[in-house]
Amino acid sequence: MKSIGSFQITGMTISGFKCYEEAAHLTFGNPTVITGGNGRGKSSIADAIAFAVTGLPFFGERGIDRLHCETNPNLMVAMYFVDGEGQNHELTRTRQKSRMTITYDGYEIRQHDLNEMFGEKDVFLSIFNPLYFIEELGDDGKKLLERHLPAISHEQVLAALSESVRASLENESILSPETYLKRRREEIRDLEQNVIYLNGQKDLLDTQRASGAENLRALQDRHDTAGYPPMTRSSSPAMRRSRTTTPTRS
Fold first, then answer.
1. Quick one: what percent of the chain has pLDDT higher than 70?
2. Which pLDDT score, from 0 to 100, does residue 23 have?
3. Is residue 192 assigned to a domain?
4. Residues 78, 181: one domain?
5. In terms of domains, do 143 and 47 share one?
6. What gap in Å lies between CA 223 and CA 233, rounded to an integer?
């Protein structure tokens, strides 16, 4: 099937889908603004568009039985659109009991054919509903982007950086940005652990220094209270021992 690069929805027919019991014919303009109170079927239109293309609702939830109208089990969604070349098309998806049928311009096709035309489920829903990309895909969204975005050379990236950043990276071997970043993060974690350890050692040294100074002041106070002469280097026991003379041989 030919890939569709762009399209504009011109109308829809919905029947047996959520709150749309009987067939409802909708005409879309460019742009279309949908307004209405709660429970009037605004979000059901978004679900119907997503269902026509992917077979799933707006946020990609499983369990499509909830899309059926309680009073009409024969679900049908027809989407009319104009492609980028100005050609009119009709995509219809029906579900009766557990059997799903897809027709495109009157010919029965498979979901695989729609994936080739509109892109795989995650791609279409991410474009149609950005919140699906943000809230539903999570970390898988990064893999989706990497799979579809064109590769950019190391030289192109460096050319877009500032001179200082470029100088710090130009001699680095970055075959895989993910591996490079992982290694750098590990180095940063090691440095942070070293900083924590050194800060602990500094705090311990400061505590020991303060304790030593406090002990010295306490000794000085006890010495002064006892009425001893002021302590000098020569009056300390160590100095007195060093000045003791030994008898000389006659």
1. 90
2. 94
3. yes
4. no
5. yes
6. 14
